[in-house]
Design brief:
It contains 2 helices and 4 strands, in the order βαββαβ. The protein is α+β, with helices and mostly antiparallel strands. The chain has a 4-stranded antiparallel β-sheet with strand order 2-3-1-4. It starts with 9 loop residues before the first strand and ends in an 8-residue tail after the last strand.
Length: about 100
């Protein structure tokens, strides 16, 4: 059994090698959950690697009024993609604002 990613008020995660189209699909699914915003992080690497994604990861943000049902739905969506592809990794982004 894979460990789920803990999603805080604002989280940055990535799945190594996940294609851009799938990142977009995940973000679209997450944005359908009430009180959740999601988007793509830019690729930070200066070196092109065909096996890496074209994006740096995914950011997820909960509105202050987000309920536990919304958080549970986000966890389910992330678990689905984690089981289908690879586990999500937490990104600790320092002084990286959007």
């Amino acid at each position: 059994m894979q460990k789920s990613v803990e999603v805080d008020q604002r989280s940055h995660i990535r799945c190594p090698g996940l294609p851009l189209a799938v990142y977009r699909e995940v973000a679209a699914h997450l944005r359908q959950v009430e009180g959740v915003k999601a988007g793509l992080l830019p690729q930070a690497s200066q070196q092109f690697d065909y096996n890496e994604s074209q994006v740096g990861g995914l950011w997820i943000e909960f509105s202050p009024g987000a309920d536990s049902a919304g958080r549970a739905m986000v966890e389910q969506i992330l678990a689905y993609y984690s089981n289908r592809y690879r586990p999500w990794e937490d990104l600790k982004v320092l002084s990286f604002e959007f």
